[in-house]
Amino acid sequence: MAAKLQITIHKAQGLEDVERFGKNDPYARIALDAAVDADFQRTKTIPNAGKNVSWEETLTIANFNPQTQHTLFVEVLDRERHDDDLIAFTGIPLQQVLSAPDQAFRGRFDLFKHIGSKKGEITLSIVVIPAGTTDIPLPGNEKQGQAQFYSAHHERLKAVFPKQYVPDGELLQFINAQPAHVREV
Predict the structure, then answer these.
(1) pTM for the whole thing?
(2) Higher pLDDT, 183 or 73
(3) 115 versus 45: which is more confidently predicted?
(4) Is 185 a member of any domain?
(5) Residues 6+ apart with CB under 8 A from 15
(6) 142-177 pLDDT per residue, tens
(7) 8 near 58, Cβ under 8 Å?
(8) In CATH, what number is assigned to the domain containing residue 105?
(9) Residue 153: which domain range?
(10) Dist. CA 110–CA 60, nearest whole Å
(11) Each residue of 141-174: b (16+ CB within 10 Å) or e?
């Protein structure tokens, strides 16, 4: 039996405002494999939260194998009527959780904008629950955690959110070049 990974997504602060009108309607997504969109689990959307949001939501990833799964991928998105917008993302090396007391870690992790610069942070509690265990340890005091910009994760995001990677002056040309079923803005 494999272990489980329990992640409580507490909050995000200092997010970039990606809304043209109004405030961000953010939700967070997590996965152990950034390449498979279907593997992502998500929080609820918080309407009009803006640049600072609180979720306090716990998600569990079953079948966690610490020998082969080394990174937790996190994405924060803005809910839209048609296509959601990427706000920020990060990769969290799980070695810091595995080496923490009771394999439980609460930390603040840097988030990255689509252009690679840091913008905001997300607070998570990450706990490894070994197979057959019913007692879930509580993370200690909040610490600054390690986060990384993974190029493979970034490349997938470029494919999923292409309009965010087009310079502002070229956005209209980009939209007009898309097939009609993709052009809804």
Answers:
(1) 0.86
(2) 73
(3) 45
(4) no
(5) 24, 26, 50, 51, 52, 53, 76, 87, 88, 111, 119, 120
(6) 999 999 999 888 888 888 877 666 554 444 444 454
(7) yes
(8) 2.60.40.150
(9) 3-177
(10) 22
(11) eeeebebebbeebbebbeeebeebeeeeeeeeee
